[in-house]
Write a structure and sequence with these properties.
The chain is of the alpha/beta class. The chain has one domain: 3-Layer(aba) Sandwich (Rossmann fold), CATH 3.40.50. The protein has helices spanning 54-58, 64-67, 80-96, 99-104, 121-128, 140-148, 185-195, 211-216, 234-244, 266-282; strands spanning 8-9, 21-28, 34-40, 46-48, 51-52, 111-115, 132-137, 153-156, 170-176, 196-207, 230-231, 247-254, 287-293. It has a seven-stranded mixed beta sheet, sandwiched between helices. A four-stranded antiparallel beta sheet has the order 2-3-4-11, with no helix packed on it. Helix 5 (121-128) links the parallel strand 6 (111-115) and strand 7. The radius of gyration is 19 Å and the shape is globular. The protein binds zinc ion (ZN).
Length: 294
């Protein structure tokens, strides 16, 4: 049951502003609260609605989220092992998106900011690549780690509250697996646009509501409520950004839905390897990364 201060509000669709929804299913969270997942009847965006308030969701991001192994959290996010694995995925995504070719064409100084940067691993990676690199993050634990251990330039803030006098300052703004967590994704994308230099780029990644999500439904590995509030299809996310003014440069999808498990059998690992290659080749992965230009 909900406690008295549990706040949920039916809101218009963040993408199209309409309020006609089709119920998909209800799902229980790790704290045994039930959330309704709906699909907008007008634009098709899948979302948690009624939506829990920012305060309500905040309790799901306690320090445990980053240190304890759960279905949705991490097995010590701060370990060197996880950090190098995350860096490997960044590098792979950037390469597959053709980012490095563009990067070579830039002159210094190059400025970048990562929105929802968690412990700052991408900020750190870009700093090591010679960028003037900073991040914004709302969760306290990872911000402390990023500042104290990695000595990075991180602001603890909600990006929509964060501001700079001078707009159009950044060559690159990134949103790695954060848009699905945001209460106001559209407003965030608009703000990113205003802070990018003309010709600058935005790279974002998120789980992709496609064929694998539709087949697995409520059991889809990314159907984590209430941490994930929005579930975009590849086309819908591209359209959303194009409406704001972004121009799509490249996109990739990856991930077969089979998660990496500790001590898995040889057959599982082989099947996973095959399935991961297969979905990447057929462009049906349940993760996506897209590169846009302003
Ligand atoms: Zn809609």
């Amino acid at each position: 049951m909900y406690s008295d201060d549990f706040i949920m509000k039916q809101i218009p669709c963040n993408s199209c502003g309409e309020d006609k929804f089709q119920n998909l299913f209800q799902k229980k969270s790790s704290k045994d609260e039930t959330f309704q997942i709906v699909k907008c009847k007008i634009c098709g965006l899948v979302q948690v609605n009624p939506q829990p308030s920012i305060e309500e969701v905040a309790k799901y991001y306690s320090d445990d989220y980053f240190t304890k192994r759960t279905d949705r959290g991490y097995d010590n996010y701060y370990s060197d092992k996880i950090r190098s694995e995350i860096e490997r995925v960044f590098r792979l995504n950037l390469e597959d998106l053709g980012f490095f070719t563009w990067e070579k064409s830039l002159s210094k100084p190059k400025r970048t900011i990562d929105i929802g940067c968690a412990a700052g691993y991408f900020v750190n990676y870009m700093k090591n690549q010679g960028w003037n690199s900073e991040g914004v993050e709302i969760a306290e634990g990872p911000v402390r780690f990023a500042k104290e251990v990695l000595q990075l330039n991180i602001t603890k803030a909600d990006f929509l509250e964060w501001d700079r006098e001078i707009k159009e300052k950044f060559e690159l703004i990134t949103l790695w697996a954060s848009i699905e967590h945001l209460h106001k994704p559209k407003e965030t994308l608009e703000k990113i646009y205003s802070h990018l230099k003309p010709g600058g780029r935005m790279i974002l990644s998120t789980c992709r509501y496609g064929i694998l999500a539709r087949i697995t439904g409520i059991n889809w590995r990314y159907m984590n409520v209430p941490e994930h509030l929005y579930y975009y299809s590849l086309d819908a996310l591209i359209r959303e950004c194009e409406k704001i003014g972004f121009k799509k440069i490249s996109s990739i999808t990856y991930g077969s839905g089979m998660t990496a498990k500790k001590d898995s059998s040889w057959i599982y690992r082989t099947t996973k390897k095959f399935m991961d290659s297969f979905v990447k080749w057929t462009n049906q992965g349940d993760m996506m990364a897209i590169q846009f230009e302003k």
